[in-house]
Write a structure and sequence with these properties.
Low-confidence stretches: 1-10, 15-40, 389-417
Distance between the termini: 52 Å
Shape: elongated
Order of helices and strands: HEEEEEHHEEEEHEEEEEEEEEEEH
Structural class: alpha+beta
Mean pLDDT: 83
Largest sheet: 6 strands, antiparallel, barrel
Number of strands: 20
Strand content: 35-45%
CATH class of the largest domain: Mainly Beta
CATH architecture of the largest domain: Beta Barrel
Helix content: 25-40%
């Protein structure tokens, strides 16, 4: 029983000591927080920089890829055996150049047959022309004889019927001649299809073979691709932008394109196309930029970085982005009153952000702002100013941190009773 009672008493004593320690620590923390919020004797060491007037650029930086502005497949219009390939991957071609030829033996025979048929039709037409002239003269002679009462009315009617028959035959021969002429032209056209050309519209005088799909000797049908042709003199840089940047982008804006494979090389591009919609899954819109590639260094499929300048603000008030804080749901900065060593919270409206600098659109500011230690500040609190402009003053035995050590020593001295 005595052991149990002694253990119970010791337990109560330990619990009481722990409660006392916790209460003591909470009281100290509350006292320190109250002193900091109240702006009384407690001071906060801060680092400051001067408010500057500079020029800021509102820009967007994106990543994307390069696509060829024009790409098409070259395919034959007729079926046949691929007789010869005239180009290969990487070759440059001009508008109208041949890329392949098909076996054309049967086509040549078809042309010769059509030529022979046309000759027969021409001969029949010429014969019917002469017979029609003879028939016309015979009709005229019969009519003259009728006027002289030498021939009868029946003779005139028979001559007229024979002449109309000759006219009908002549018209048929004329139509047959036109038909055979068209057949010959069709055969010649099919023969020309045995030479597979690459042709396009536009000002580009030279393009390149990007892909080759078939080899010589292959049997192919009409519209089977043989090669693909691309234009790389003018390329398209494609980027995707989110909705925050979408409404800043306008057609005609100039962008700087830097290929990842060619560091240091910067090309100028112009925004040519803006998608009228944002993709539902990515919430991004496709933007196309027209890019001149006169030196042919850029290739489709390359990864690029794009910089688009939306606007430039000259002679504007700027502070470091690290100076921005939030108090009572307001964004602002702590403006330092050096004479009274006070920090005053000033709500601000920001503008452009470029790198580590932010534009202060309103109000107009001057003086110094806190960039370090301001997370401990409240409006009207006293501050200890540290050295930020130029090298800190060195004191014996304190090394490079002499200036800050003096500030900390002053802070400690200020807190002593």
């Amino acid at each position: 029983m005595k052991k149990f009672g002694l253990t119970f008493v010791l337990g109560l004593a330990i619990a009481g000591g722990l409660v006392y320690i916790v209460q003591n620590q909470l009281s100290k923390s509350a006292g320190q927080a109250g002193g900091r919020r109240g702006g009384g004797g407690a001071k906060v060491a801060v680092e400051t920089v001067a408010v500057k007037v500079a020029s800021l650029v509102d820009e967007g930086r994106f990543v994307g890829s390069i696509e060829s502005k024009s790409k098409f497949m070259v395919a034959p219009k007729i079926s046949g055996r691929l007789k010869q390939m005239l180009v290969d991957i990487g070759d440059s071609i001009s508008n109208g150049d041949a890329v392949a030829t098909l076996d054309d033996e049967e086509l040549l025979l078809s042309v010769k047959q059509a030529e022979a048929d046309l000759e027969i039709a021409r001969a029949n037409f010429n014969e019917s022309t002469e017979l029609l002239e003879i028939s016309q003269r015979e009709l005229d002679r019969i009519k003259t004889m009728r006027q002289q009462k030498v021939s009868s009315e029946v003779d005139v009617e028979n001559a007229q019927a024979a002449h109309k028959t000759r006219q009908a035959r002549h018209q048929v021969n004329r139509a047959l001649q036109s038909q055979k002429q068209a057949a010959l032209e069709s055969a010649q056209l099919r023969l020309s299809y045995a030479r597979v050309d690459a042709s396009w519209s536009g000002v580009a005088s030279k393009r390149f073979i990007a892909e080759r799909f078939l080899n010589e000797g292959a049997m192919i049908s009409a519209n089977t691709p043989i090669v693909s042709v691309i234009d790389i003199a003018t390329l398209t840089a494609v980027i995707d932008v989110v909705e925050q940047d979408y409404f800043k982008i306008k057609a005609g804006l100039i962008a700087e394109i830097e290929p990842s494979a060619l560091p240091g090389s910067v090309y100028k591009a112009r925004i040519s196309r803006i998608s009228p919609m944002l993709d539902e899954s990515s919430r991004q819109a496709r933007i196309e930029l027209e890019l001149e590639n006169t030196d042919y260094q850029l290739k489709p499929g390359m990864f690029v970085k794009a910089r688009i300048i939306y606007a430039v603000h000259d002679n504007t008030t700027v502070v470091p982005t690290s100076a921005l804080v939030r108090r009572n749901n307001l964004e602002g900065i702590f403006l330092i009153d050096r004479e009274n060593e006070k920090a005053n919270f000033v709500p601000v409206k920001t503008g452009f952000i470029e790198g580590q600098q932010v534009e202060i659109a309103s109000p107009t500011l001057s003086g110094d702002v806190a960039i370090l230690g301001h997370h401990l500040l409240e409006d009207g609190m006293s501050v200890i100013l540290t050295v930020n402009d130029g090298p800190a003053e060195k004191t014996p035995g304190k090394g490079k941190d002499g200036g800050r050590s003096k500030g900390q020593d002053a802070k400690k001295g200020g807190q002593q009773p």
